[in-house]
């Protein structure tokens, strides 16, 4: 039987899914053991137990100076920046996508412009943002917006253009005007695409958030990682990295669930 | 003046002629089948009737109204695919037949309840009442086309345009759809234009069969000339393929 036609059973599939995680963990533990055997004070690859201790301390014990549990404050402020940035980008992307996809005049005016703007590397604009908007919250949110909005606009306008022309013509013969077609035919059909596009752009959004926080901030997940880097506090960095990965995974999972729940017509058929 | 009148219509894309000098008059309530080989302008002609395209020369008018420049509620249409809205339930699709013409594309309050009841009557009539709350993707091809026809008729168009509506259906379903369409037509006396690949279907359903072909043919440049209506058959008599030519053929009859 050809390999492409063989499928793993449920047990084997679970095993294969877990395998890479276990392998990475084992590789880390071995590396850590070797280094710690040579030098018990080694900071580069702390033992799993010490990471767990650190994680417990970070999640539960308040900071001595401020009396606050910093990790939760970092998480709250980072999620707030990310949420505001992604929400604004999604709104702009949806609005502009509908306009570009449906109205040839808007398309003629904006499509080329956005194709060029989306090639500007957002991180290269970061200094400009800090100069223009200061070092506060605004510049971080704006970096996320500049980073992911062009992608969202391009993706969504493409999705709107891909709506079969037959449907648009049908709506016209039923007496729908441009506004009604946008609102009742195009909008509901691109909303699931919007969620997909947002899921894809969450990775870049985190990247821009952490980059902005690393450079100028006094609170936030990215700020903390780059702060403790000075002390080679790998245990703290690793805890934060795992925590950020977990957050990103949960957000992605929730968006997937939301999409399934909110758009039953997408899942059925096709 | 006739109900639908097509006068000296030419259509070309760039320098390439598609249709040449198409003239036809259709009375209210006639069922017109449009047949012809691929690339002979059948679908172009339907798009012109639909006003999705405007002819390079000539006019098409319905009931003496000025020629339309874009699709409007005078015309109802059913395509081979993508004729219903996938994000609306079956009932919502029928309601959309009326509500898309409203300011926000929907009814509110009392009007909404009334529209719902009218939609349920339509669904009962077209045999889709049992799936009213499902989405079109769950329906078979035949049911989707029945829904599309019901939706188009809900908007009360003056003419109904069908672009190979049964082309994607299996032969059995196709026969059922023929009965369904003939019943609906008997009830509404709708003027219908149907493009089809299937000659039998064209003669069975149509009162008249228009054949599109290229009257002039340049073997070195097949695209040099456009197509026009070359035959206009009378296809009544219960679909028996016995035709009376209704056009002047210029063939001298010698005794």
UniProtKB/TrEMBL annotation, chain A:
SUPFAM superfamilies: MetI-like (SSF161098). This is NitT/TauT family transport system permease protein. It comes from Aliiruegeria lutimaris. One of its GO terms (biological process) is transmembrane transport. One of its GO terms (cellular component) is plasma membrane. Pfam families: BPD_transp_1. CDD domains: TM_PBP2. The lineage of its organism: Bacteria, Pseudomonadati, Pseudomonadota, Alphaproteobacteria, Rhodobacterales. The chain crosses the membrane at residues 82-103, 110-135, 205-226, 232-255. PROSITE patterns: ABC_TM1 (PS50928). InterPro entries: MetI-like (IPR000515), MetI-like_sf (IPR035906). It is found in: Cell membrane.
UniProtKB/TrEMBL annotation, chain B:
Pfam families: ABC_tran. Gene3D superfamilies: P-loop containing nucleotide triphosphate hydrolases. Residues 4-239 form the ABC transporter domain. InterPro entries: AAA+_ATPase, ABC_transporter-like_ATP-bd, ABC_transporter-like_CS, ABC_transporter_ATP-bind, P-loop_NTPase. The keyword Disulfide bond does not apply. Keywords: ATP-binding, Cell membrane, Membrane, Nucleotide-binding, Translocase, Transport. CDD domains: ABC_NrtD_SsuB_transporters (cd03293). GO terms for molecular function: ATP binding; ATP hydrolysis activity. Belongs to the ABC transporter superfamily. This is NitT/TauT family transport system ATP-binding protein.
């Amino acid at each position: 039987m050809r390999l492409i036609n063989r499928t793993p059973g449920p047990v084997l599939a679970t095993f294969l899914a877990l395998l890479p995680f276990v392998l990475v963990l084992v590789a880390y533990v071995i590396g850590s053991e070797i280094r710690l055997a040579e030098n018990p004070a080694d900071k580069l690859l702390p033992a799993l137990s010490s990471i767990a201790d650190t994680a417990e301390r970070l999640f539960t014990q308040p900071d001595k100076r401020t009396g606050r549990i910093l990790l939760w404050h970092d998480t709250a402020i980072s999620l707030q920046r990310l949420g505001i940035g992604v929400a604004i980008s999604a709104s702009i992307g949806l609005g502009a996508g509908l306009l570009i996809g449906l109205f040839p005049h808007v398309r003629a005016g904006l499509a080329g412009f956005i194709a060029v703007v989306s090639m500007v590397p957002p991180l290269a604009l970061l200094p400009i943002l800090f100069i223009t908007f200061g070092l506060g919250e605004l510049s971080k949110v704006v970096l996320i917006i500049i980073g992911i909005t062009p992608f969202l606009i391009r993706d969504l306008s493409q999705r709107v253009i891909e709506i079969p022309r037959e449907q648009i013509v049908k709506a016209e013969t039923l007496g729908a005007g441009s506004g009604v077609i946008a609102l009742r035919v195009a909008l509901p059909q691109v909303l699931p695409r919007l969620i997909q596009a947002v899921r894809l752009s969450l990775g870049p959004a985190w990247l821009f958030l952490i980059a902005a926080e690393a450079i100028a901030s006094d609170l936030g997940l990215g700020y903390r990682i780059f702060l403790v880097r000075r002390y080679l506090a790998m245990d703290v960095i690793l805890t934060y990295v795992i925590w950020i990965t977990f957050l990103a995974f949960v957000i992605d999972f929730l968006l997937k669930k939301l999409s399934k729940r909110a758009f039953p017509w997408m899942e059925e058929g096709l | 003046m006739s109900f639908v009148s097509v006068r000296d219509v030419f259509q070309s894309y760039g320098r390439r002629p598609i249709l040449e000098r198409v003239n036809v008059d259709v009375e209210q309530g006639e069922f017109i089948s449009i047949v012809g080989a691929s690339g002979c302008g059948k679908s172009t002609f339907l798009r012109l009737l639909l006003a999705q395209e405007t002819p390079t020369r000539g006019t098409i008018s319905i009931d003496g109204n000025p020629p339309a420049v874009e699709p409007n509620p005078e015309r109802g249409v059913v395509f081979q695919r993508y004729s219903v809205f996938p994000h609306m339930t079956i009932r919502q699709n029928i309601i959309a037949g009326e509500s898309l013409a409203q300011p926000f594309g929907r009814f509110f309050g009392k009007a909404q309840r009334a529209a719902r009841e009218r939609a349920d009557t339509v669904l009962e009539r077209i045999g889709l009442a049992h799936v009213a709350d499902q989405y079109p993707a769950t329906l078979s091809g035949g049911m989707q086309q029945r829904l599309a026809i019901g939706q188009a008729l809900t908007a009360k168009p003056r003419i109904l345009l069908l672009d190979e509506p049964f082309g994607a259906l299996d032969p059995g379903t196709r026969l059922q759809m023929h009965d369904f369409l003939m019943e609906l037509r008997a009830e509404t006396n709708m003027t219908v234009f149907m493009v089809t690949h299937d000659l039998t279907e064209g003669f069975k359903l149509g009162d008249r069969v228009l054949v599109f072909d290229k009257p002039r043919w340049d073997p070195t440049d097949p695209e040099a000339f456009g197509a026009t209506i070359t035959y206009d058959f009378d296809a009544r008599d219960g679909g028996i393929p016995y035709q009376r030519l209704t056009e002047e053929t210029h063939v001298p009859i010698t005794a």
